[in-house]
Write a structure and sequence with these properties.
Blueprint (H helix, E strand, L loop, with lengths): L2 H16 L6 E3 L6 E4 L4 E11 L11 H18 L3 E11 L5 H17 L3 E9 L4 E11 L14 E5 L17 H10 L4 E4 L4 H12 L2 E5 L12 H6 L6 E5 L1 H14 L4 E8 L6 E4 L5 E4 L8
Parallel strand pairs: 4-5, 9-12
Antiparallel strand pairs: 1-2, 2-3, 3-6, 4-6, 7-10, 7-11, 8-10, 9-11, 12-13
Helix pairs in contact: 2-3, 2-4
Length: 304
């Protein structure tokens, strides 16, 4: 059996089934970040992400500054999806000795600029020889216990929301996006959110992840999904990754409150795109503009 036979989701589940954690761990594998007991009022959040040349970016198409920015931004987006605040980063870089120093300087400057913007402390890391550029960022954040949001809390009747617009990564948004920390904090500080995830691997795939973790169904409507003006076709927009918008669910009562308050409270648009349903087969459905329903599974960017 090859890794491609079980795929990325299957491999993660295979690993998770064999891992054991102690009582200090609230949430291990299976969310945007791990959740650890920390203080009386806060949880510690831990996440990591790799950025690999020719997988996540092309050197000829991305500035070194953009590569560094994206490397850190991806992990900050994970912390935002938990309702938290990013704090401390460790950065490991694999780079060729033949690479120009300007490449390393540009990558570092991109990370430092974003870290300053979000008050993240870059506290260390590692360097190693590598034929292709590889950047791994580990990030610690914190979240008030009352504000923590997991993927697994969606309930039938919840309204599904997204921030911003979908499909912009096709035109390069993935290289200079701003993590939705401020938006997430406004939402969790003012409303009861049942589940949340950042859209890193595609709207359809990440909604499927919420439905899978919560053991519920989901129905979204093509006519309601906000598309970026840079998006290509609808199909590509919802099935290609790296939008890094927030996808979240909340009760109808809370949804009404959000929609009423959003014009003043939120600088970034929030849009209701569907509802959570009871568990069904198929689990997730897209209602097209002609009224027909189309089932979808984990459709999006998977490494294998």
């Amino acid at each position: 059996m090859k890794i491609r036979d079980i795929g990325e989701i299957g491999l993660i589940r295979r690993f998770a089934a064999k891992q054991r954690v102690d009582k200090s761990v609230i949430q291990a594998s299976g969310d945007d970040a791990a959740v650890i007991r920390w203080t009386k009022t806060k949880y510690l959040l831990l996440t990591c992400d790799m950025l690999i040349e020719d997988v996540h970016f092309k050197l000829r198409r991305a500035l070194p500054y953009q590569i560094g920015w994206k490397a850190l931004a991806r992990t900050i987006s994970d912390i935002a999806a938990m309702g938290g605040v990013p704090r401390y980063a460790l950065v490991s870089i694999g780079i060729s000795p033949k690479a120009p120093v300007s490449l390393a300087d540009g990558i570092h400057q991109g990370m430092v600029s974003l870290a300053k913007r979000f008050k993240v402390n870059i506290v260390g890391g590692d360097l190693a020889r590598s034929e292709k550029l590889v950047i791994d960022v580990s990030l610690a954040g914190e979240c008030e216990k009352k504000n923590l949001v997991l993927r697994s809390g969606a309930r039938p009747g919840d309204i599904i929301f997204v921030t911003g617009a979908i499909g912009g990564s096709i035109r390069g948004k993935h290289l200079d996006f701003t993590p939705r920390v401020a938006e997430a904090r406004r939402i969790v500080n003012n409303f009861k959110i049942n589940s949340m995830i950042d859209i890193s691997d595609a709207l359809l795939l990440d909604l499927w992840r919420i439905s899978d973790a919560s053991a519920v169904g989901a129905r979204i409507y093509e006519s309601l999904i906000p598309l970026s003006r840079d998006a290509g076709s609808f199909v590509k927009a919802v099935s290609q990754g790296e939008d890094f918008e927030l996808l979240f669910t909340m009760s109808r009562i809370e949804a009404k409150r959000l929609l009423k308050a959003a014009p003043v409270l939120m600088k970034t648009p929030v849009t209701a795109i569907g509802e959570i349903t009871a568990a069904q087969d198929p689990r997730c459905r897209l209602v097209k503009k002609d009224g027909t329903e189309e089932a979808f599974g984990p459709n999006g960017y998977l490494h294998f």
